[in-house]
From TrEMBL:
Name of protein: ABC transporter ATP-binding protein
Principal cellular location given in the protein's record: membrane
Organism: Niallia taxi
Single GO term (MF): ATP binding
GO BP: iron ion transport
Alphabetical keyword list: ATP-binding, Cell membrane, Ion transport, Iron, Iron transport, Membrane, Nucleotide-binding, Transport
A Gene Ontology term for the protein's cellular component: plasma membrane
Cross-referenced PANTHER family: IRON(3+)-HYDROXAMATE IMPORT ATP-BINDING PROTEIN FHUC
């Protein structure tokens, strides 16, 4: 069992049930990616696990404690969250932005201590954003800005970092830049990384563990090799995919695919039958 996990969690927006009775375990010290079609509950699950939104039933536990009962500052010392479209105050410098990551550790009037300053500089160095410390966040490119936000998350000095679609709106080079940075943080510092990604090949390349969701349920969770298969992609996305092997990483890669037209209902019936067989075996 990992440090962070859910037990029978359900999440609703108003009357609409989005996530249904999920049991999810986040592996410690690994990169976990959540995949699935739009509206399947990926971001909703991420937000519930970080207490951004409430869940209606079940539990989210960190080190055996319900996160709802952990003090906000204490929880912020354990996990950091980078939302899908973070926004900063106009004119804020990169150094000022990253300093916000020290808020959970501050007391009294919030004056930065020597350790706070060291943590900020370390986060800037780790993300190669030190040269932008005195520059306005608004003046940065998309990739530079995303690295600055990751630096803020690093300055919190948490073991767990959540990112909701960290490559959104970035070009291919900047996407790779951000994902390689997260991989480096995981490999060199042992950070547990949890992120939502849309690109299947990026998920397979950078993740150790993938959670594949559909309609608020987990279809399957496992290694990239276990998830990036014709059968799983058919069930999750209704696509007929051809899977190969990335010659550089030896990870599975989706070479091409086409939509399965008129077969969705049959696929859902087949999946339900598979689930019943598993449940009764």
């Amino acid at each position: 069992m990992g440090r962070l996990y859910t037990e029978d969690i359900s999440i609703s927006y108003g009357e609409k049930l989005i996530v249904k009775n999920l049991d999810v375990v986040i592996p410690d010290g690994k990169i976990t990616t959540i995949i699935g079609s739009n509206g399947c509950g990926k971001s909703t699950l991420l937000k519930a696990m970080t207490r951004i939104i409430p869940h209606q039933s079940g539990s989210v536990l960190l080190d055996g404690k319900h996160i709802s009962k952990i003090h906000t500052k204490q929880l912020a010392k354990e996990m950091a969250i980078l939302p899908q479209t973070p926004e900063s105050v106009a004119g804020l410098t990169v150094g000022e932005l990253v300093s916000y990551g020290r808020f959970p550790h501050q007391k009294g009037f919030g004056k930065l201590t020597k350790h706070d300053i060291e943590a900020i500089d370390w986060a800037l160095e780790s993300t190669n954003t030190m040269e932008f410390k005195d520059r306005s966040v608004d003046a940065l490119s998309g990739g530079q800005r995303q690295r600055a936000w990751i630096a803020m998350a690093l300055a919190q000095e948490t073991d767990i970092i959540f990112l909701d679609e960290p490559t959104t709106y970035l070009d291919m080079a900047h996407q790779l830049e951000v994902l390689e940075l997260l991989q480096k943080l995981n490999e060199e510092q042992g950070r547990t990384i949890v992120m939502v990604l849309h690109d299947l090949n990026q998920a397979a390349r950078f993740a150790d563990y993938i959670i594949a969701m559909k309609d608020g349920e987990v279809i399957k969770a496992g290694s990239p090799t276990e998830i990036l298969t014709k059968d799983i992609l058919r069930k999750v996305f209704q696509i007929d995919a051809e899977i190969g092997e990335d010659p550089r990483t030896n990870k599975p890669i989706c070479l091409t695919y086409h939509l399965i037209k008129g077969e969705q209902k049959n696929e859902e019936v087949l999946y339900a039958n598979d689930s019943n067989l598993v449940a009764t075996s």
